[in-house]
Write a structure and sequence with these properties.
This protein has 376 residues and is an alpha+beta fold. Helix content is 35%, strand content 23%.
Length: 376
């Protein structure tokens, strides 16, 4: 859906390319194989006895010795990951001499840059253990781990993301095989403010964020009461599209006013936050964030040359599909066996017989219904 051409002061222009879209926040989760096995076993127990919730079934399978051993292994995995940050994934400080962090302040790097982990001896984000991450003594994130919460995670702030070689991080995640993205924030900065809060509000009113059903929105402003009695949003305005709890949200805010940046007073940031709620975030997003920024909402297609939309993989949708398949098998398997054993149909002929005259998207009504609700 194209944005209307500019015809006056209230019109919108086509958005620029987001080839320089940056990653401003990143959370990686580390899945431990033994814990994944226990999760599957706990799910089977939960299906057999729903009087006890899934997490309690899971905890019942964890022995005290297993918790201690696994927690040590998880912390060791985090330490190894940090060592890789030190040896292969960090930009050299000389390459960052002109780089500014998310607050607009310049970083001061020494010749001996070093990522470090400082154990907090308390938990965070429902994990029983946590540690602060620092880069050259600058706080840049947090690491959490625990067998009771299925594994480990590392969250990296804008400062951390600005100092990472994402090509190397991508390759490391592929090599390890058990790392996945659970949150990624992709940002585009318009320092001239051509595409501002008003632009976003007009897009929303025209339905340019809608895929199937309109997403929710929120609008905030902060400032002071002017002498003439009018409200003055001197500290900036913000417009939100979508909800964090649904796994996708756009934030557009007047960062120049928020930071009181005299050099860039009109600075507006467009930032898409994606979480792995009902969706799998591909590791390719580490290499090509602008694609997924542009593909997150229909109107943001104008911000990139190759928009890529991440498809939802809802647990509810999967459960509905499994339910349909289960009962289809129960009702059809004897007929299929008859066709195969008595009428000598091949497997392909049986498939062709059952799918004749169906379109590629002819699925059970329940599947289509769930998919429609989840496709915003």
């Amino acid at each position: 859906m194209k944005l209307p051409p500019k015809t006056g002061s209230d019109s919108m222009t086509l958005a620029p390319s987001t080839d320089k879209c940056i990653i401003d926040y990143l959370t990686l989760s580390f899945d431990y194989v033994e814990l994944e096995r226990l999760k599957m076993e706990a799910k089977l127990h939960f299906e057999a006895d729903r009087t006890i919730n899934f997490r309690d079934h899971y905890k019942a399978l964890l022995t005290e010795e297993m918790v201690t051993t696994t927690d040590n292994i998880l912390f060791d995995n985090i330490s190894k990951f940090i060592s890789q940050l030190n040896t292969r994934m960090s930009k050299h400080y000389k390459d960052l001499s002109d780089w500014k962090d998310a607050s607009g302040e310049e970083f001061s790097y020494s010749d001996h840059e070093m990522w470090t982990v400082k154990n907090n001896h308390y938990g965070r984000f429902r994990y029983p253990n946590s540690a602060n991450l620092e880069f050259d003594s600058v706080p840049v994130g947090v690491a959490c781990w625990g067998a009771e919460n299925f594994g480990a995670m590392v969250s990296l702030t804008g400062k951390a993301c600005g100092s990472i070689k994402f090509e190397e991080l991508h390759d490391l995640c592929i090599e390890l095989g058990y790392v996945r993205i659970t949150r990624i924030d992709m940002a585009y900065d318009d320092f001239q403010g051509h595409f501002n809060i008003d632009t976003c509000r007009k897009m929303f009113k025209q339905g340019l964020f809608t895929v199937t059903t309109p997403p929710s929105y929120a609008y905030y402003e902060s400032g002071v009461l002017a002498k003439n009695g009018r409200l003055c949003a001197s500290a900036g305005r913000s417009f939100y599209v979508g909800k964090r709890t649904n796994g996708k949200m756009l934030r557009v805010y007047e960062k120049g006013l928020h930071l009181k940046d005299e050099k860039n007073p009109d600075w507006v940031r467009w930032e898409v936050e994606l979480r792995n709620i009902d969706r799998e975030i591909p590791l390719d997003a580490l290499l090509n964030p602008s694609k997924y920024f542009a593909g997150s909402y229909p109107c943001l297609n104008q911000f990139g040359t190759q928009p890529e939309r991440i498809q939802l993989q809802s647990k509810k949708l999967n459960a509905t599909a499994e339910h349909c398949i289960k009962y289809a098998v129960l009702h059809s398997r004897r007929v299929i066996n008859l066709l195969k054993q008595i009428h000598q149909y091949s497997s392909q002929e049986i498939v062709d017989l059952f799918t004749a005259e169906l379109d590629d998207d002819d699925f059970p009504t329940r599947i289509k219904s769930d998919a429609l609700v989840l496709s915003t």
